[in-house]
Predict the structure.
Amino acid sequence: MTVHFHEEDLPAGVLADGPVAVDTETMGLVTPRDRLCVVQISDGQGDEHLVRFAKGSNYDAPNLKAVLADPARVKIYHFARFDLAAIEHYLGVVAAPVFCTKIASKMTRTYTDRHGLKNLTEELLGESMSKQQQSSDWGAPTLNDAQREYAASDVRYLHRLREILIERLKREDRLELAEACYEFLPARARLDIAGWADKDIFSHE
Amino acid sequence: MTVHFHEEDLPAGVLADGPVAVDTETMGLVTPRDRLCVVQISDGQGDEHLVRFAKGSNYDAPNLKAVLADPARVKIYHFARFDLAAIEHYLGVVAAPVFCTKIASKMTRTYTDRHGLKNLTEELLGESMSKQQQSSDWGAPTLNDAQREYAASDVRYLHRLREILIERLKREDRLELAEACYEFLPARARLDIAGWADKDIFSHE
Ligand SMILES: Nc1ncnc2c1ncn2[C@@H]1O[C@H](COP(=O)(O)O)[C@@H](OP(=O)(O)O)[C@H]1O
Ligand SMILES: Nc1ncnc2c1ncn2[C@@H]1O[C@H](COP(=O)(O)O)[C@@H](OP(=O)(O)O)[C@H]1O
């Protein structure tokens, strides 16, 4: 289990085929304002890759973009909506097809309202995660060890969570409904970028 | 321009080909509790058809269901989410493909937060609608003239609104985004029936 650090792009050929776990770190929650600083990606075999973008980056990352845009690779996220928006806005690709562990959690763990990644990994995997670096300066010239470890841990458990959540979705007859949500997520992210971030477009009001 | 009243099903062959405007009247806003009382439907040629379901109805309405389920007919609604849920729950069909004038309004009339059907018909068509019968007893043994007129008026303007809203969506480059929302609407309605009516499944919380 190694955390690999890269600047401005993923090296070619470092990922096994199949679904990849993806997360992003940004300067904040307002996508068009808060630049994309790090993309984390893992093929679920034990290693995590961090791709760092410097201030002023042109986000010209052909290897990373090819993986993200690959229609044959499912991208596993926790709260995909946010990452899809950052990736589309800064990297210019729609990083689908999607599996979102937060939506799967909402649709199966109806006995709780705690759908944070930390809650999920604790309950479903018995692993504890530190969220201390969540609000940190991801735009700093160098990322410290705690930040790197935090960023890597955000993609470390997603493959295993997905397996369990797929079983739960099947058990509760909600896999199809979850998949309909996943299909809409790229459009939901585009609405966020376009200015509807604070609106539920489906609400009556 | 005639309002046609039918009990328990639409007669065969009364609608021209093409998109149909659809609305429903129910006993209230909680779909599994509040039974479907009336389905209104119009082909946009000037007539409106009201299909009335009595208390205890088995909702065995083959002609109406065939029109609603026809994948070649766009169904035009105002706030499709609610009607799709009532139709799926009581009639057992997914009444898609969808055009929703409320979503189109939200995505184009960004200069206002008034996206009610009355607001739309006034601004875009210069027609005024009475909303007096909106909260009335749609389960009564007979519907009075004011109710019939109200129910019919709810589908009367939808074809014309759709034409104008499609032009606006194109002008603002948002037609594709609106269509992504329309595709998700049947799943959004299924979530409502399944118990997520008060939740935005895409929210962080
Ligand atoms: N409105 C919001 N509130 C909190 N977190 C949000 C958010 N919008 C997006 N996020 C992102 O969602 C992730 C947190 O999800 P959760 O709380 O469910 O574990 C965070 O990602 P990171 O952990 O990568 O920073 C955070 O950046
Ligand atoms: N939460 C809600 N509040 C108000 N109206 C709602 C609603 N959920 C569904 N509706 C339906 O949405 C329609 C009103 O839309 P609008 O206010 O945009 O004109 C009404 O249909 P009817 O007019 O057929 O009764 C109403 O029944």
In short: Residues 175-196 of chain B form the longest helix (22 residues). Chain B touches chain A through 30 residues (CB under 8 Å). The beta strands of chain B are 3-7, 20-26, 36-42, 48-52, 75-77, 98-100.
